[in-house]
Predict the structure.
Amino acid sequence: MAGFLSDLVQYRKLLLMIMVLGIGGTHLSGFQISVINYASPHIQKFINETWLERYGSVLHQETLTLFWSLIVSMYCVGGMIGCLCSGYLTAKYGKKKCLLFNDVVLIVATLHTGFSRRAKSFEMILIGRFLEGIGAGIHMNAHVQYAGEISPKKFRGFVNVTTSVFLALGKAVARILGLRDLLGTEDMWNVLLSFSGLVALIQLLFLPFFPESPSYLLLQKGDKAGCLKAMKQLWGEGNYHTEFDDMMKEKAVTKGTKIMNVLEVLKEPSVYPQLSTMLLLLLSLQLCGLSAITFYTSEIFQTANLQESIIPYVSLGVAISELISIIFCSSIIDHFGRRILLWGGYLLMALILVLLETSLLLSDQFLWMRYCSVILIFLFIIAYGIGPAGAIASVMNEIFTLSTRSSAFVIGGIVIWLGLTFTGMIFPFAVMLLGPFCFLIFIAVLVISAVLIYLFVPETKGKSTSEITEEFKTRRFKKKCHQTVEKNATEEKTFCTKL
């Protein structure tokens, strides 16, 4: 640990860039997803009052619910559009310019949400949330790729996990600022929503002082001098021949290969193993049971006889637990590797869900079980943070070459946004039908995901992109050889039978 901390001091410029990237990257996504829940009652009241002032009549509850659903869904629609645009933008203009442009979009979005109350226009909130969604779709992809490309090999896992750290930080900040003691009030909800613009402005001011990623400069622009300069600027004085040689090998392998668009990636058979791995990781993350835990958290806290005024602070404790556990993951991922954190984390989460299911079913018979349920929620979030929440971002960044990474992240982003939309639509009905038994679905998903990851996902720790790509090819070659041997054996058996 001491060596790790001393290395971080040496790479202090890299740490500064990680912070600048993070606060205007996934931090904003975490904040925007969570903050809307705290502003919800105030925005709905504002819509009703605005309608009454305009038309002299109160909105029907169904119409109010429709307007509120539009405000929530506009963020997802914008996210899909931003995600689709991100591949082209990051490939053509680079991650740095893409993020700077995105900051301007987010500031414009904030002006709409921030001044909507003064303008007495709930339509401005709709526009603002739509633009924020576009920004989220762009900066989630750009930030994750940028972070992976600026890190030296020995810190690659740590730097990749920081994207998840800032996502959790955004959720925690939203819960802190959304407290009734701070900005979660009827008079301050528009200021709460405007926080995103302040953070985007900070990134807009400071990111120009940092370089574009070394791999982008070398592989995409062919600028060796710029690549070496960026390395020294981020990593300090030192010998970086290993990283530079790895990039030169990747350049030799992909020589003459242009940045592939989404359709070209989908048609390229050599990328199918990586795409399958990414889809497995993203779908397992979407269906790991976090949505169920979030849904039941308030109910479980209430059955444990916690006071209504204390529950927001306990929920804040859950968010802080997630943040601390992901920070811990960032410090161990380069030591233990990615695979064990993934399949081990999923198995641990499955075990905790089994215990939580048991405690919920027995809570009416044994009152002390209700307190066990509260503890198990914290343990589930900690297992989630130490395991898949941090490791998945690292694996996704490492398994794709520069020519396919941007488009692969577009595909992954679409899966994430569709997952968020369908989970939000279908999960409440699953709860109505199954009640606490809905956890059984997630337990099955966690166990199956752990087995598939253990069998098929390669370890990426300490390996270059070329080495990881070669390992995927080797696995495919072994599979083909195995199929060929079986086919030959069958043909030989048939021939002998004929004789």
